Amino acid sequence: MTGPEHYRQAEQLADRAHHWTYGDGGDPVVGAALAAEAQVHATLALAAATALSVSASDDWIAVAGVRS
Length: 68
Description:
By secondary structure, the protein is mainly alpha-helical. It is 75% helix and 0% strand. It is built from three helices and no strands.
């Protein structure tokens, strides 16, 4: 999984965690597990982004919403 893929996965899992914790899901335990998994993906995305010392790839630019 690439850094941008980890970032996108973290976003999706965080959204699902919110749904399970506060929305129709109604199971805070599932929400907490999803939030923990989202955090792992976010950390891996951060590590990958940090490794890009000079310039960002087109994938990172797209994920960050930055126009080149």
